[in-house]
Amino acid sequence: MKNIFFSLFLLTVSSCTKHFVTTEYKFKEERLNPNSPSDEKIAAIIQPYKDSLDKEMNVVLAVSDTILTKSIPESDLGNLMCDLVLKKSKDYCNCKIDFTFLNNGGIRLPNLPKGNITLGKIIELMPFENLIDIMTVNGKTLDTLFNYMAAKGGWQVSGARYGINKFPGYIGDPKATAIFINGEPLDLNKQYTIAVSDYLAQGGDNCTMLSYLPKTILKKSLRDAIIDGLKEMNLKEEHIKSVIDRRIQIFK
Predict the structure, then answer these.
(1) Can you give the residue range of the structural domain that contains 210?
(2) Which ranges of the chain have pLDDT less than 50?
(3) CA separation, residue 98 to residues 158, 193, 227, 252 (Å)
(4) Residue 160: is it exposed, middle or buried by C-beta count within 10 angstroms (0-12/13-18/19+)?
(5) Among candidates 102, 99, 79, 83, which has minimal Cα distance to 190?
(6) Which residue among 4, 12, 75, 250 is the one 20 to 30 A from 167 at the CA level?
(7) Amino acid 241: pLDDT
(8) At 139, which CATH number?
(9) Cα 7 to the chain's mean position, in Å?
(10) Which sign does the torsion angle of CA 77, 79, 80, 84 carry?
(11) pTM here?
(12) Does the residue 51 lie in any domain?
């Protein structure tokens, strides 16, 4: 009998329960800016993580004797980055690599400062997680690639040299000329090994001439190569020095 009354009680209560239906939404946008007041409780929660991150980002990787600047067709900043990527790519894969190149859009800072170069600054310079791809490319494809780099005003290289034709009255895109790889003229019938970001290897920035080729992906990024290379320089007490060696020239 008790069970019957209890069941009836539950049925009565459940039948009296109110059901609410949303009939209106209100939204207020609050934008944050540098002058927005801080929330002390949230700031206190975040502070230990911020302190830890700041400590890591402020680690000095190397010291530069000069300001290193991004420019085209050739720059001391681009030369440094390509030289480090080429050297460390060889170390990572323990194989022969002929040259490497970087597109100018992949260099995300206009310069690196004179003095201490920190981990945080290198992450600003290369914020993307682009891995290094190793590719075998024939000379004809590289000729197309160098002409494309010339048409873009000149991309940064290491292990190679080339000129850009910009003669007075020249019509059409500038062309690459006097292309040398490892000190020897480009051979259209030869196979070359290059180290390149996976973004460009997959055809990014219109490098479609590379997109169909087989690739070996290293478990190292371009940023890893630059960081590791700078650490090695620091261990040897070597400073970064500005280098413009005319690996890219404009022929007018």
Answers:
(1) 57-251
(2) none
(3) 9, 5, 21, 28
(4) buried
(5) 99
(6) 75
(7) 92
(8) 3.90.780.10
(9) 68
(10) positive
(11) 0.81
(12) no
